[in-house]
Design brief:
Blueprint (H helix, E strand, L loop, with lengths): L2 H4 L3 E6 L3 H13 L3 E8 L2 H10 L4 E3 H10 L3 E4 L3 H13 L3 E5 L6 H14 L3 E4 L1 H4 L1 H13 L2 E9 L15 H11 L1 H12 L2 E8 L5 E7 L4 E7 L8 E8 L2 E4 L6 H18 L7 H20 L1
Parallel strand pairs: 1-2, 1-4, 2-3, 4-5, 5-6, 7-10
Antiparallel strand pairs: 7-11, 8-9, 9-10, 11-12
């Protein structure tokens, strides 16, 4: 019998039943060979029961259901608005559960700091799901560009058309996303690519663009600079993702990736590795806190004009 045959499944419970949970997280967890989907909790009982039935697991509801799911799980994955996620992540860490969180961890620095401190105090592993850090194609590209070095500047444009006229996306119904805009929704993705390649952010300048668009200029510890354009209200013809690096060896552009479900399976693998080894992942709750600090500073600058 091989080592893999004797390794117990990591029991992961899912908190949330919205489109993200239905389309990405629940399918990825249910299909993962190293995971037992230990249950689904939802604020709406009917949604929790429906999603649990699809994946052959148990539904949990109500306040008491949260505690019951935490007790039945080694780790929990979150598909909830960030400021609902944060206090529940603290609660989960205090219950001894490892954390697989969505980005941003919270939309307040205090909320994100509480999560990072709770995870550290409880000695639980944590991963924040920034898609490009875990999609196989892009995670390999990030590691390769970080190793190359010598980058002079970078440009990132992450424009969605979620709120463009005629959009029928079910993700447009998210109140937090509509309130906070592209800065908070897609900003973590772009920053999670640039920071490991160019170094941490030493200085940040932000300005508001059309609709929810935000422009950032960053100076990094490597000496490189970067510019970011982030938004969810672009016309469909203008939407898309581009990240380009320029430096001593020329230019490099981020490759395409297979999709969110494949990337999420990579995040599950990363959490399992952190649990097994005790070595924190680079994209953990502390990194999530740092992203929130940067986004909050950018939001303050953009709103101040």
């Amino acid at each position: 019998m091989t080592t893999a045959d004797t390794t117990p499944l990591l029991r992961i419970g899912l908190l949330g039943t919205g489109p993200w949970a239905r389309n990405t997280q629940a399918p990825a967890l249910a299909a993962h060979p190293g995971v037992e989907l230990s249950g689904v909790w939802g604020r709406r009982a009917e949604a929790a029961h429906a999603l649990a039935a699809v994946h052959g697991t148990r539904a949990y509801t109500g306040e008491e259901g949260i505690d019951a799911l935490l007790e039945a799980s080694d780790a929990v994955a979150f598909a909830l608005p960030p400021d609902v996620q944060a206090p529940l992540a603290v609660r989960a860490a205090e219950a001894g559960c490892h954390l697989l969180m969505d980005k941003p961890v919270a939309t307040t620095v205090a909320g994100a700091r509480a999560v990072a401190e709770a995870a550290e105090k409880a000695s639980v592993a944590s991963v924040v799901f920034c898609t490009l850090r875990f999609a196989p194609e892009t995670s390999a590209w990030i590691a390769e560009q970080a190793a190359v070095g010598g980058w002079f500047t970078a440009r990132a444009q992450w424009l969605g058309s979620l709120y463009a006229a005629g959009s029928a996306s079910e993700y447009a119904d998210s109140p937090w996303r509509r309130e906070k805009g592209g800065l908070w929704d897609v900003g973590p993705h772009a920053l999670s690519v640039l920071i490991p390649v160019l170094g941490d952010v030493e200085h940040l300048t932000a300005a508001a663009g059309p609709a929810d668009t935000t422009h950032l200029i960053l100076r990094h510890t490597s000496g490189a600079s970067s510019t970011l354009t982030l938004g969810l209200s672009a016309p469909p013809g203008a939407a898309g993702v581009e990240i380009e690096l320029r430096g001593e060896r020329g230019t490099a552009s981020v490759p395409g990736w297979a999709g969110a479900e494949t990337a999420f399976r990579g995040a599950v693998d990363a959490l399992a590795e952190a649990v097994r080894t005790g070595v924190p992942h680079a994209c953990d709750a502390r990194f999530g806190l740092h992203l929130t600090e940067l986004l909050a500073a950018a939001e303050d600058q953009a709103q101040a004009g």
